[in-house]
Amino acid sequence: MINYHGPIDRIYQYLFLVACFFLPLTVAANNIAIYLIVLIWIFSGDYSKKFQKIKNNNLAIASIVFFLAHVVALIWTENISWGLEIVRKMLPFLLVLPIFLTITRSDNIKFYIFAFLLAIGISELLSYLIWFGVIEPFGYAYVGSPTPIMSHVSYNPFLAFAIYIVSNELISGKKISQYKRVIYTFFILTMTFNMFITGGRAGQIMFFVAIILLAFQYFKTSQIKAIYTSIGLIALISITSYNFSPVFHERIQMASHEIVNYDANSDLDTSIGLRINFFLNSW
């Protein structure tokens, strides 16, 4: 049973569960739940206690500072209208994340995670049904990228995060039943395979970073083992995916071509070309 203190906190907890569930499924429903939480927080009073919670939360402070950095950057922008649009897009770091960090409860984390993983499971099931030809592609899906509910650009990072959560649960040392171990392992394998039949490179990079992080978490007393294990797993998964996943193979080939030929095509309007330009400009 979900834990809460008082009627308002009860509303917060259930709305946050809804937000966690819809996060990898639909932006509209997720936004409705988020807006309701923010509005209730703003108009429910007890502001001194709320701001004290934010003040005592380092991540909430960092989120607000991150937002304010965009506001300060308006001073030297050459395009004020575009700058204001970016500030608008950054509003969640001012209004949403700090609020979420003060309403979430540690004793309800398992419920938040379950809601999120349930949604990922639904997305994954639909993805496989399209990939195996059981149902026709719909939504954002097409034959080369079976991600119907959201584009692969957004889907794969959520998938990588889900893989990390389940893997961490499996290797954390907690006493879990053999049945759960089998379910977790199966889920990790199906999500990993799903990661490489879709085309989200950002999610794939997150996946490899998650492997490194998990290796260091598992081999807490031996960094050498963590390094060798993570390198071995990344190499094995990369080689296997390159040889058996047409989508992954094609994207690696395209990325390699664009990097090698960047000097001759520095104005290349492609995802890799733009990323290289952004990196060089930032540097």
Describe the structure.
With 283 residues, the protein is mostly helical. It folds into two domains: 6-103, no CATH class; 121-260, no CATH class. Helix content is 73%, strand content 0%. Helix 1 (6-22) runs antiparallel to helix 2 (27-43), helix 8 crosses helix 10 and helix 9 (152-171) packs parallel to helix 11 (201-218). The radius of gyration is 21 Å and the shape is globular. It starts with 5 loop residues before the first helix and ends with a helix.
So what's the oligomer here? Answer: single chain
The ordered string of helix (H) and strand (E) elements is HHHHHHHHHHHHHH
Q: Rounded to an integer, what's the Rg over CA atoms?
A: 21 Å
Mean pLDDT: 89
Count every beta strand, where a strand is a DSSP E run of 2 or more residues: 0
| Relative helix content | over 70%
Count of individual domains: 2
Approximately how much beta-strand content do the residues carry?
Answer: under 5%
What is the approximate shape? globular
Sequence stretches where pLDDT stays below 50 over 5 or more residues: none
For the termini, the CA-CA separation is 50 Å
Task: Give the helix/strand class.
Answer: mainly alpha
Number of helices: 14
Largest sheet: none
Task: Give a quick set of tags describing it.
73% helix; 2 domains; 283 residues; mainly alpha; 14 helices
Short synopsis of the structure:
With 283 residues, the protein is mostly helical. It folds into 2 domains: 6-103, no CATH class; 121-260, no CATH class.
